[in-house]
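Data deposition worksheet. Section B asks for the primary sequence of the deposited chain exactly as it was used as input, without tags or linkers unless they were present during the calculation. Section C holds the resulting structure in token form. Section D is free text for depositor observations; keep each observation to a single sentence. Incomplete worksheets are returned to the depositor.
Section A, Depositor: J.P.
Section B:
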Amino acid sequence: MVAAAISKDQNKFVTNTRGLVHSAKKQMQAQMLSTMYGEVVKNLELSKTMAAHNEPLIQVIDAPRFPLEKDKASKLKGLVFGGIDCRLFNGAVDHWPGCFQRK
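Section C:
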């Protein structure tokens, strides 16, 4: 584009068309390169779209096995561990009473 503009400025007052040939060639080359760049960008976008269509959105890693097993803690186990936790907390409160009071 710049070369075409420079050539046009140099041949501004030329009366014969022979001097304008260089300017026309530069303009044609700029037009051709612009069209080629547009086609390359279009092909790049098309290839990105095709690659996105070929890849799955969600990939299955592992199939689930049914029925799923229920993992419940028994009531006895809950009472035992809850009692131990409660006793440890109460022991801490009794041993360090200043830590749990508001100031």
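Section D:
The longest helix spans residues 21-54.
The helical segments are 2-10, 21-54, 75-95.
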